[in-house]
Design brief:
- The protein has two domains: about 5-215, Cation efflux protein transmembrane domain (Alpha-lytic protease prodomain-like); about 215-249, no CATH class.
- It has seven helices and two strands, in the order H-H-H-H-H-H-H-E-E.
- It has helices at about 10-35, 40-65, 80-110, 120-145, 145-175, 185-210, 215-235, and strands at about 240, 245.
- Strand 1 and strand 2 form a beta hairpin.
- Helix 1 (about 10-35) packs antiparallel against helix 2, helix 3 runs parallel beside helix 5 (about 145-175) and helix 5 runs antiparallel to helix 6.
């Protein structure tokens, strides 16, 4: 069975469930590793994965609603649930970024032990997994043209970015030694800014879809060109209407 035989929301739901399963495993791996390895950046990374799970749960709910058939109260269907879910994902990203930034600033000025070197290997594995998830989920989102699924893909990319920042911060702390412990916390702060940026990137197209923003001039011109070609073909064909032959476009 290929994607054509399956409802787009069903494909999106399946992809979302994969993401939830992966994030659930990673939140425990990163959280425990960050605690044992004295790395706040890794703990912040685990927090971002927790936000992944919550936002993916909202996305799953939105997609389930979007699958419903039109009814008396919703004659045009429930498709708007998808961009609403994308908005929810972006808001969770903003919340996670704010939480990470607040705690990073607090930890920067607090003396603490250097992170352990094994945390770097954990982060390399996490980065590979999350980047793979990003590419997979984004490809599905593009195939079914779903803003919500694309938003979920960027959530995986945000997690990968957080892990890259944590990797750099921990590396600096380990190379610099005593006195460079704060590099780990600065990495978490930089990651929070990148997560916030990704949230805005997700939010803008979702809001445009909710507000029924007009298509760009480029799209309008393409539609006009296609319509003009169609009309040229139709004008050459005699069409009988009410027993009279007329040329119509």
């Amino acid at each position: 069975m290929n994607h054509i035989d399956i409802h787009p929301s069903s494909i999106a739901i399946r992809t979302t469930l994969y993401g939830i399963a992966v994030s659930l495993v990673l939140i425990f791996v990163k959280g425990i590793s960050g605690y044992l390895g004295h790395s706040y950046a890794l703990i912040a990374d685990a927090t971002e994965s927790g936000a992944d799970i919550l936002s993916s749960g909202l996305l799953w709910l939105g997609l389930r609603i979007a699958m419903k058939e039109p009814d008396e109260e919703h004659p045009y269907g429930h498709g708007k649930a998808e961009p609403l879910a994308a908005i929810a994902v972006s808001l969770f990203l903003i919340g996670a970024a704010t939480w990470i930034a607040y705690h990073s600033i607090n930890f920067i000025g607090t003396p603490h032990a250097l992170p352990k070197s094994f945390t770097l290997w954990i982060l390399l594995i996490v980065i590979a997994i999350k980047e793979t998830m990003f590419r997979y989920v984004l490809s599905v989102g593009n195939k079914i043209n779903s803003q919500a699924v694309k938003a979920d893909a960027h959530h995986h990319r945000s997690d990968a970015i957080t892990s890259i920042a944590a990797f750099i911060g921990i590396s600096i702390a380990l190379i610099g030694g005593k006195g460079y412990e704060g590099a780990d916390d600065w990495a978490a702060l930089v990651a929070s800014a990148l997560i916030f940026y990704n949230a805005i990137v997700i939010l803008k197209p979702a809001l445009s879809e909710i507000m029924d923003k007009a298509p760009s001039n480029e799209i309008v011109e393409k539609v006009k060109d296609i319509a003009a070609v169609f009309c040229q073909v139709i004008e050459r064909l005699p069409i009988r209407i009410n027993d009279k032959k007329q040329l119509v476009c």
